[in-house]
Structures are given as structure tokens and as C-alpha cells.
Amino acid sequence: MQLVINTRGSFLKKQNNCFFVKVDDKTFEVSEKKVDSILITTSATITTDAIKFAVENNIDIVFLDNFGDPFGRVWHSKLGSTTYIRRRQLEISDEPEGFRLAKGWIEQKIDSQILFLKDLKKNRPDQKDELDDYISGMEDMKSQLEALEGKLDEMRGKIMGLEGMASRHYFEALSFLLPDRWKFNGRSRNPAKDGFNCLLNYGYGVLYSKVEKACIIAGLDPYVGFNHTDDYNKKSFVFDLIEMYRIHIDRTVFNLFSKKQVSDNFFDEIPNGMTLNKEGKAVLIQAVNETFDKEISYRGRNIKIGNTIQFDCHRIANNLIGK
Amino acid sequence: MLVWVIYDITENRVRQKVSDRCKSYGLYRVQKSVFLGDLNTNDRDSLGLECEELIDIERDSVYIFPMDEQSFKKVQLLGQAFDKELVSDEVITKFF
Q1: CA torsion angle for A289, B72, B25, A48 (degrees, to 10)?
Q2: What percentage of chain A exceeds 90 in pLDDT?
Q3: Which of this chain's residues are annotated to bind Mn(2+) (chain A) (predicted)?
Q4: Is domain B2-94 given the CATH code 3.30.565.10 in the classification?
Q5: Do A16 and B25 touch (CB under 8 A)?
Q6: N or C: which end of chain A has fewer CB within 10 A?
Q7: Which residue of B has its CA nearest to A31?
Q8: How high is the pLDDT of residue A225?
Q9: pLDDT tens across A32-74, in order?
Q10: Domains of chain A
Q11: Angle at A79 between CA A249 and CA A87, to 5 degrees
Q12: What are residue A44's DSSP bridge partners?
């Protein structure tokens, strides 16, 4: 299970071989064997014993800020695997093979966006025509993307451009399907200007930390990006890979809205936008974890959505070193 | 598989050790000397061995009962009941 510390002033320590959480008068004790990650979304106290205990048991502790962006994590200071993987990652980033790999991730992203819109179309016969327009626009971008050839250096701008255009269609379609109260005007971040973006950003933040963890475990360097260029402290490779998994957050958030599970008191107003409050975070994190716990068919077997990230990372790493 | 651990132990210190051991294996306390939780076969065996080392086999007793899912569904809970979802690992997110 994932422990989520979401109440101001909570206290986490190690007791015997368990995590011990105390909130006001309530206490909870749970064995390290049952915990796979700890998410801290608010001000809390943790003992160094608990941190050491978590690190020793491969449980990552992630700290999220108000917008859901992980601002820090506690994780062992090891590489995860051999440096050879990282060396190959650097080499391949400007070979045609790297270009194919990077292009493939974006294609997969657009594919799953289109699939989602098609799924939504099934139950919405009245909005079929509009949705078809959006979908055909996106299919056009996808075929342009598939036709691209060359090296990443020259094509990076084109890939990102097509991806951006496809995304714009996609979010316009989603907004079009939402009830009037929740319609939004494009993506907004830091801070979000509307409820939909608010949930989306927070969900992406949680996802981002999962992808980073999977990279490290597989021995991939989170900072060596293909589509995303090098920059100071920019986790470019995480940004590259996350594109394939955003769809799970999109579906989760959209479902929350379409099942009318989102209410106004999930959000706090801040200057220029809004943030998710304690109640909103609880509903979203719960829904996201339920999504990741669902099984899907993945290369001929059924595995949990949350585990596909790790499988993909291992596969990428193995391909890099020719295994 | 779900496992019930039930014990009767005379000495306080030993009882404490057995209950700590149960907790660290991921079992939940459902009554004063009753633990319940999901364990794999390896953990179940090693918990048994460890408890055997701790107790005085002349006086104390520890029972380790595995239970299949079918039977667990038929369990009746009366009065102050434990959290059925928690002990069967169906809780995937725990908030504080």
C-alpha cells in the first residue's frame, strides 16, 4: 500500500520493524512489508530512523508541493544498475536509433489519446461528429509524425511541435465533453486556472515521481533526455518517458469529473489560480492508485498498470545494452 | 494466503516478542492475542520457526492457521470488528 501523509502535523517514526504514524490521538502501525511508497503532501515530522528504514527496504519517500510537483525524495544514493546503461543512453541519443525510440514514445502517447477519445465517443452519440473532427485532426498529426526521419538534433522541434498540436486538439475535445461548470481553456500550470488542470497537474506530479523511480531502478539516467534537451538540473529523460503514461492520469481525472465526484470544496483559491486542498488530494490520490492497481494486457500478459512503467524502463535499458 | 496467529503465552516479555514479530511480518492485531494478515508461504513458515524459538513449549502455545479466501468471505464480524479490507491487503492507499 501507499502511505499518504496528508494531515498537517502528522508524525512518522519507526517502531520495531514497522512504520508508526501518529495523527492527533490516532495511531497506526504497519509492517514495512506492506508499504511500497510514502507520499508526504503537507508539513509533517519524520524521524531519521524511519527514513533509514524506508531506504533500506526500497520504499521511496516523496515530498509533493502544493501543485503536486515532487520537490524532493529520499532514495538510496546508488546508481540502480551498471553505468554501461547510462553510457549507451548518451551514445544512442544522437543516433538514428535514438530518434526512432523517442519518436515511438510520442506516437504511443498520441495513440492512447486517440483511443481515449474513441472510448468516450462510444457513450456519447450526440457529440460524435465534433469528436470525429478532433480525432481526425490528431490522426493527421500522428501520420505526419510517423513520416519523420532523420536525427533528433534536426527533428526535435518538429516532433515537439506535432505533439503540442495533437495535445491541443485532445484537451479541447476533453473540455468540450465536460459539463459547463468545469470547462477549461487549454492547459495551465503553476498555478492551474481551473479545476481540471488542478487535478491533472497534481496527478502528473505523482506520476512523475513514479517514472523517476522506475528509471533509477532500471539504471537509466533521469537527466539524459532524447526529446527534451539538456538543461540545468532538468530531468529530461523522465519528461521523455512520462508522455506514455499521462493517459492513465487523464482517464482517472476525466472519470472523476464525469462521475460527478469532484466538488468545489476540493480547491483553494490562490492568486492567479487554484490549488488542490487536503480533501481534493485524498480523492485524487485514491483514484490514481486504484487506476495503477488495475490490470491491463501488456505484451501478452496481464500486469498492473503501475508496473508497466518499470517493465518499460527495464526493456529500454536492456535494449540499450543489446540484451 | 490469509493467516491467523493465536497465542497463549505466560511470560510478558515473551508475549511482547511474539506480538512484535507478528507485526513486523505484516500481520494486524485484531484482538489481544490474535493476529491476522496476508503472508506468503515462506513468511508463514519462518514466522512459525521464530515463534517456536521464543516460547516455552512446555507452557505456551502459538497456533498458525492459514485460511482460504472463500472461507474468509464467510467470516462473521460482530461487535468491535477489525478492518476486513485492511487485513486482506485490499487497501491500496492509506491516508493520514
Answers
A1: 30
A2: 30
A3: 163, 228, 243
A4: no
A5: no
A6: C
A7: B26
A8: 80
A9: 888 989 999 888 999 999 999 999 888 889 998 888 888 888 8
A10: 2-78 (3.100.10.20), 85-321 (1.20.120.920)
A11: 95
A12: A10
Say if the Cβ atoms of A6 and B96 lie within 8 Å: yes
CB contact under 8 A, A2 and B91: no
Q: How far is residue A75's CA from residue A59's CA, in Å, rounded to a whole number? A: 8
Looking at this protein, which amino acid is placed at residue A231?
A: D
Half-sphere exposure (Cβ direction) of B69: Cα atoms closer than 13 Å: 5
Q: CA-to-CA distance for B79 and A29, rounded, in angstroms?
A: 22
Q: How far apart are CA B34 and CA B5, in angstroms?
A: 6
- Per-residue pLDDT of A115-144, as tens digits, reads 999 998 888 888 888 888 888 888 988 888
Per the CB < 8 A criterion, the answer to whether A243 and A105 are in contact is yes
Q: Using an 8 Å CB-CB cutoff, list chain B residues near A34.
A: 26, 89
Q: What is the pLDDT of residue A90?
A: 85
Name the burial class of residue A190, with classes exposed (0-12), middle (13-18) and buried (19+) by CB atoms within 10 angstroms of its CB.
exposed
A1 to A36, A286, A289: CA distances (angstroms): 6, 11, 9
- pLDDT of residue A311 exceeding 90: yes
pLDDT tops 70 at residue A233: no
User: What is d(CA A298, CA A308) in angstroms, rounded to the nearest whole number?
Assistant: 7
Predicted model pTM? 0.82
Residue with grid cell 492520469, as numbered in its chain: A249
A171 within 8 A of A117, measured Cβ to Cβ: no
Helix axis angle, A152-177 relative to A128-147, nearest 10°? 170
Q: Is A146 annotated as a binding residue?
A: no
Angstrom distance (rounded) from CA A218 to CA A310: 7
Q: Report ipTM (2 d.p.).
A: 0.77
Q: Domain map of chain B by residue range? A: 2-94
Name the DSSP letter for residue A178.
S
